[in-house]
Amino acid sequence: MSTAPPGYRLAAATGLHRGDRAYQQDQVGVLPHPRVPGCVLAVVADGMGGKSGGRKAADQVLLTAQQLFERYTPSRDTPSETLKQLVLESHLMIKLTAITAEEEPHSTLAAFLISASRACDVIHAGDSRIYHFRGAELVSRTVDHSFVQRLVDEGQITEDEANTHPQSNLLTGCLGTQQDPPLTLSHIASLEIGDTLLACSDGLWHYFTPRELGAIVHTLTPREASEMLVGKARHRARGGGDNLSLALVRVEALG
Question: What is the pTM assigned to this prediction?
C-alpha cells in the first residue's frame, strides 16, 4: 500500500448552508481515498433547475464522484483523466435524470484531487471556484464559465463590476445542458506546507475578496475558517443570500 510522504497531514472541513432560499440545491464532499493515505478528492456542486431539479443534479455529481473515487487506483489511473470522467459522467447522469423529471436539472462542478505525492489536479465547470492559497497569498483561482467573466476577459467590465452585474448568474458552461460541458483542467506540481485549497459555490465567494479569503483560511483552522466564511457570507447577504457551500483542505506540518 502507498503511504503519504512523512512530515505533513491534510486537514479538511466542509460548509453548507441553505442561505435565504427555500431549498438547498448545493452539495459538497471531501472524500479520503479508501486505500491510499494522503489521497483526497474534494467536490462542490451548485445545482440549478426547479424545486428539486437542482438538488437532483448536485446529488448526481457527488454520487458519481464517490463511485469513481472508489474505483480510482493512483498507481494505474491518471488524476486528470479521472476528473474529466467525473465531469462527463455527471453530465450524462444529469441529462438522463432530466428525461424522467419535469425540471431541467443543471449543476456546476468544482473538484480537486490531491495525490499522495502532494501533486494536485483541478477541474471546474460553471461558476463554482477553486482557490489555491500559499499561506495567506492567492496563488491561483479557476476562471468562471460565465457571461460576466467573458466581459471581464474582454476588458468591458472590472472584477468588482462583475460581482454586481445584473446578469452575473448567466453561465456559459455547466453540467446537464444540451451542449458538452467544459473540461477546464489545471495542475499544481506540488502543494507545500501551509497551502490551502478552497472549492466553493458562488453563494460564498460572491461576498469576499481573495485577500479576505486568504487571511481567513491562513489564520484559522479549517473548521473555524469554514464557520467564519459561512457566517460572514450570511451576514453580508442581508437576507438575500443564495445556497452556499465550500470544501477546504490545508496541508499542515506534523507536530
Answer: 0.94
* Integer Cα distance of 202 and 225 in angstroms: 17
Q: Give the CA-trace dihedral at 111, 18, 170, 181, to 10 degrees.
A: 30
pLDDT in tens, 143-187: 999 998 999 889 898 887 887 787 877 899 999 999 999 999 999
Burial 69-107 (b: 16+ CB within 10 A, else e): beebebeeeebbebbbbbbebbbebbbebbeeeebebbb
List pLDDT tens digits, range 210-224: 999 999 999 999 999
Task: Encode burial over 196-219: b for 16+ CB neighbours within 10 A, e otherwise.
Answer: bbbbbbbbbbbbbebeebbbbbbe
Quote the cell numbers at residue 82.
479521472
Instruction: Please provide the size of the chain in residues.
Output: 255
Distance CA 171, CA 108 (A): 9
The identity of residue 29, as a single letter, is G
